[in-house]
Amino acid sequence: MPRWNDAIRRSMTISSASCNLRNRPPSAVNSLTTEDFPISAPEAAQLISSTLPRARPGKVVLAVSGGADSTAMMLLAAQCSIPDIQFHVVTIDHGLRAESAAEASYVADLAQRLGLPHDIIRWDGQSSVNNPSAAAREARYRMLTDRARQLEAFAVMTAHHQDDQIETHLLAKDRGAIGAGLAGMRRWRSLFPDIVLARPFLSIPASRFRQTLLLQGINWVEDPSNQNDRYARARLRKHLQSVPRRSDHLHEIAKAAAERAAADAGMAKTIEHLVSRQALIIDDAAQVRLEISAMRELPDDRASELLARMITAAGGALYPPSASAIERVMAGLGAGQVASTLGGCQILADGKYLLLRREYGRLGPEICNLAKGCQTVVFDRRFLIDIQTSAGAKLCSLGFLRRGNAATRCLPVVVDEQMRIVAAHSKVAGRISPLVEILPAHEIVFWRMTADLPEFAKF
């Protein structure tokens, strides 16, 4: 069973009133500091509304694990009033601990009491990866995004708070980050074309979430890994609890965030300019071309960041390469190097252009087992594919079938149970057979290059 916080082991009562101090005993009120005040429903509504870019009517998925932070977020979402917004709770049962199923069931029960729709989605990939915790984090966002698409929701909302932001900042500092790299998490970023990840509570200390639940007598789940000193974040949490004032950290984060905002605006203008003069081109095969002369006109830091964005997107990588790796590639290009690889991406000096495309590598893009019927699938973080398939079909790369050349091996194809190609990317379908259907694959490389730039948000 879940490990409930002993301090609040009491009967569950749900109040529809806004959080305030009027119902608290005077002694409790006097003992509260500013950082301990519960979050009121109107305050939550204002934070949520101001975070969603160009807020629009529709559904918002709430990512709720059962911990204090996400449970308080769910409670506040049920109590606050935001016109034309419907919340839908989703819990990912990661299966990494024996208690996870019971914790997910607790969230489902509480969501029902609050009048919110709820889904439990189980992740079964923990036995097939070397780093289950990291894989679970990636799978969590992927499954939340998939459910948001199914619900036609325009946002996924998490309960990341000020303590999380400071932890992220300190971890980045420990890794040697400087400047904008110390800005921490963004209030929002794009998860998928037309779906945003919203973090409206980054200015709220963690203690206020717990006070919100204590005021209304709501239980929450305690994850023991949060107290395990094996994890850097757990050690940082204990450090933050012993620091009476965190203003220095918050000042550094604000300064870095301002630098990042300025850099984002500059990058957006650069990309717009390059696209308008056709110096930056992304073709249907998800290959990126950048005029070498145009790149040389950019300041070194802008050129390096642009190259990192292109490599990450064209190579289908989850994370950008390190700054030192980008510096080595830039130095090689400056010295006349015509070919290199980084982050699953081939980088070729092709006459007038710098060409970036997915490298097949040792294993190639991941194979995807397809469900029967109509579905939308993201392939290799580079293509969005709308397809109708029969039972047993798979989505894989042409190279998996030992076909294609360096330019085509990483293009998507659909095979049946006998591994026969039944549909393929338009660039190769005609070469395979007149009977092979053209796969409706749309590149999302440009979206990935600009996903965290407000100027390109599709809202």
Automatic annotation (TrEMBL):
GO cellular component labels: cytoplasm
Gene3D superfamilies: HUPs
Superkingdom: Bacteria
Key words of the record: ATP-binding, Cytoplasm, Ligase, Nucleotide-binding, tRNA processing
Subcellular location: Cytoplasm
Binding site for ATP: S65, G66, G67, A68, D69, S70
Listed InterPro entries: Rossmann-like_a/b/a_fold (IPR014729), TilS/TtcA_N (IPR011063), tRNA_Ile_lys_synt (IPR012094), tRNA_Ile_lys_synt_N (IPR012795)
Catalytic activity: cytidine(34) in tRNA(Ile2) + L-lysine + ATP = lysidine(34) in tRNA(Ile2) + AMP + diphosphate + H(+)
GO biological process, one term: tRNA modification
Molecular functions (GO terms): ATP binding; tRNA(Ile)-lysidine synthase activity
UniProt KW Cytoplasm keyword: yes
Keyword Secreted: no
EC number(s) reported in the record: 6.3.4.19
Pfam families in UniProt: ATP_bind_3
SUPFAM superfamilies found in the cross-reference section: Adenine nucleotide alpha hydrolases-like (SSF52402)
EC class name: ligase
Primary location recorded for the protein, binned into one broad class: cytoplasm
Ranges of residues in domain tRNA(Ile)-lysidine/2-thiocytidine synthase N-terminal: 59-238
Similarity comment: family membership: Belongs to the tRNA(Ile)-lysidine synthase family.
Domain notes: The N-terminal region contains the highly conserved SGGXDS motif, predicted to be a P-loop motif involved in ATP binding.
Function, as annotated: Ligates lysine onto the cytidine present at position 34 of the AUA codon-specific tRNA(Ile) that contains the anticodon CAU, in an ATP-dependent manner. Cytidine is converted to lysidine, thus changing the amino acid specificity of the tRNA from methionine to isoleucine.
Cross-referenced PANTHER family: TRNA(ILE)-LYSIDINE SYNTHASE-RELATED
Name of this chain's protein: tRNA(Ile)-lysidine synthase
Natural source organism: Aureimonas fodinaquatilis
